[in-house]
Amino acid sequence: MSFVVAAPEFLAQAASDIAGIGSTLSQAAAAAAAPTTAVAAAGADEISAAIAALFNGHAQTYQALNAQAAAFHQQFVQTMTGTGGAYAAAEAVNAAQSLPQDVLGIINAPTMALFNRPLIGDGANGGPGMRGGDGGILYGNGGAGGNGGSNQAGGAGGNAGLIGNGGAGGNGGVNTSPGVGQNGGAGGSGGWLFGNGGSGGAGTGAFSKAGPGGFGGAGGSAGLWGSGGQGGSGGAGGTGAAYVAGAGGAGGNGGWLYGPGGAGGTGGVAGAASAFGGIGGAGGNGGLIGDGGAGGSGGAGSTGTNGGAGGHGGNGGLLYGNGGSGGNGVAAQFAGGTNGGDGGNAGLFGNAGGGGSGGNGDNLAAGRGGNGGVAIFGDGGNGGAGGNMIGAINSNQAIAGGNGGNGGVSRLWGNGGSGGNGGAGETSNTGGIGGRGGDGANAGLLFGNGGAGGFGGTGGNANFGTGVSAGGGGNGGIGGVSGLFYGNGGTGGGGGAGGNFTGGTAGDGGDGGAGGNARLIGNGGAGGAGGPTGAFTNPGKAGVGAGGGLAGILFGQPGAHG
């Protein structure tokens, strides 16, 4: 658009001059009114009277037109006067708007000269692959890191000052030549007093066959009060057999006084025929008060390639906070599943995080469930479920399902975590046994119920026509012991069912897990039932039920036999 330049003082002067012209014309018209509108007839004849009337009519018409012109003139003068005032007001507003910027420039001048950093203001965003600028020392957010250019890592986010949020890390750039993937930039730190950490940037995949994927950037940590930033996701791995996908970035820690930790980033996806998917990032820890961040899930594997393991959950705050849940392992096609991450520990008060589930296996071992985290005044975390063996193969290998993770204990007051269930065994000529259920954890030393044991996984079926025998069911986990003064023992996990085999010997059922004992007051946990044998032509053996836990010494009932 074109620009308009106006001088308000010139407009006001022009309006004054035009008003003067109008006043002069009005005075002249008034002076001419009397002699021109009252012309007397020269004689008593009709011709003289007609001439006088003609001149008087013209004079009256002139006076009427002059009155209209004077009114228009007055409106024009008012318009010019108002326009000049409007321009003058706009100039005053512009001056008022520039005043804060001028004042801010004066305030920031000393710190810019000494530290090359403003006292108040946001940091500038970084250029391609460059770090974001730091926020003002007193107040301001960190600038975002620049996304990487070709074959360039992402820039880190800028840090905040006293108050403000950290800048996000930039994503890794695209590779245009063989080599490793580019890492994502780390998130900037939150303000020393208040503010959240910035999220990490995502890593990028390797180009062609050469190189591992880039790592996700770590989330920035908070200062005194704020949330940790989330970790960035890892980049995909190259297609060569020796290359892995990038790991997810770790979540940032919460504020020292208060704040939850950030979640870990997801691992990168494995390339074709590469080693395995990326590991999930660990969750960040809470501060004095705050929950731990969840661990990131592992990256998926490609055909014949293992996925990545789940990241561990972050720990809760020292005084109060729940532990973060562990990330899940991932399933694989014609490869092994990966382990779930362990749950994070709770603080002094709070519940621990549960373990992540193990990934399903296909032709190689399934993943184990992650263990539950530990609590002090609170409940322990539950163990994650073991992965199942999926698919069916025509071979004599017998691969077991993944074991369930163990429950986490409570140290002083609280319930023990339950064990995770075992995964199903592989279907093959000799079916794989089911995974063992995880053990329930003991309750707090003073009060609490013991955790229940996990159920055993189902045994794998035998292939019809080529099978030898079906797989046995997995054993159940043991129930946890109660607290000293009060609490019930945990129930034992039931044994898994044996695998099916029509035309041969079916799999044996798994044994049940023992029930947990009570201590002073409370009931013992029931024992787990034995698993049934599978469908059969020749029967297998049913699993053996386990004994129940002991009753409390002062009061309680013993647990039933499984």
From TrEMBL:
Gene3D superfamilies: HP0062-like domain
Domain of life: Bacteria
Residue span(s) of domain PE: 4-94
InterPro entries membership: PE-PGRS_N, PGRS_rpt, PPE_sf
Protein name: PE domain-containing protein
Native source species: Mycobacterium gordonae
